[in-house]
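Study this fold:
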Amino acid sequence: MDHEPVRTRISSGELIGSRDAGIDRYLGVPYAAAPFGSRRFRAPEPPEGWPAPLTATAFGATAPQLPYTGATADILDSVRIDGESILTANVWAPAGAVAAPVVLWIHGGALERGTAALSLYDGSTFARDGIVFVSINYRLGSEGFSVLDDAPRNLGLQDAAAALRWVRAEISAFGGDPHRITLMGESAGGALVAALLARDDTRALVRGGIVQSGPLQARSPKRGGRVTHQLAKRLGVKPTRAAFAALDPDTLLEARRAQSAGSSPLGGAPGFELVIDEHTLPRSPHEALVDAAVPLLIGTNTDEYRLWFPPAALDAIRPWKLLLARLALRIRAAAVRAVRADHPGASTGEVFGQLATDLLLRAPATRIARSRTAPTFVYEFAWPSPVRDLRAAHALEIPFVFDGLADPETSKIAGATPPQHLATAMHGAWVRFIRDGDPGWPAFDERRTTALFAGADEDPVVGPQRRTAAVDLLPGERR
């Protein structure tokens, strides 16, 4: 029978979910109290219990955020669900599961957009394959990543840490093994995964991590707080908890809309970032992951930048802009020559974009993989989408990882006929890593072994990492 009611009990009370096709689903379950009113700009607090059974068949409210705009809005979906109970988790579990492996998914969105309610993040395919899948919402933008003079820092990260502790404490009620938790995230979600692995307390709760196209560096409070201080100046207030809490979320969002107009990943208004903080993130992930003794699956997409820069924007980039960017970012001319050699016929804009991809994502991931002693498995996603000349753009791998090609949203980014065998291969590799700590190819070593998911073959092509010259010439992280 479709959508049969199913029940379980956790420490906060009884839950009523639904069962369909052998998968139990519980949505919108509070893992922390609503972070508004007196709790705004404060560390997450435990959820209040519920005396009567809680119906958990709909996603919780989305964190305050602005929708995507411009060409990106045609590709990435936005969902708005009103309400204050935004710190919620969603669970998909095989019916009758006992001590099953668990994965905790953290969505991306530049730390200021996104929600677990997107259909592409449906956990049914993982539950189908024996995994208890959990997704979460966390505070975004000013609510989650402001650097205020008298408020806790990295609140969105603290939310994710609270969610992880909730999973550890409660997941056995859903059939999961609390000692077999893997973290997984893409883009900003990957950055949060890396940050959780960088902390001693949260790393101790997991067995491994998956970082898909995630930035790995946390900034100094001064640099990471530029967005907050600029917003405060624009609003005519001080960068304090009291001043920001006196403004409603929509006021902060409108100020952010004005502040970020015309920005790009390499220019314009600063974005929200994780910051170094003795209480919530003592070490930057790009340093701490070197010593993190847990298996790591990490990788990037070949053409990440093509989501950030539409074709018209790439065409508008002139050699002088590439030169200025190179000088400002301390990129050696040899690195530019290496990119041109690796991409014959590339325009100036495409060289600029590839340098952005390598500098922001690929080079840091490579440095981590080369320096770690714990098992580290590296991938590159290279299948070219036919949509808007995206090629292998940022976020394109998500529907393949989730084996979600049938979702109507997939066609927006992957076209009408993406290859199912590629989704089968990627999803299978992720399931194996979550279940066994090994995706099915050798760990990164001195040969720089990498799995290339390009779509031409049933399985990834395993061999030496491609295009290493430019990556090795790029400068390291700066605070």
User: Anything to note?
Assistant: Residues 311-379+398-479 form one domain. The mean pLDDT is 96. The longest strand covers residues 176-186. The radius of gyration is 21 Å.
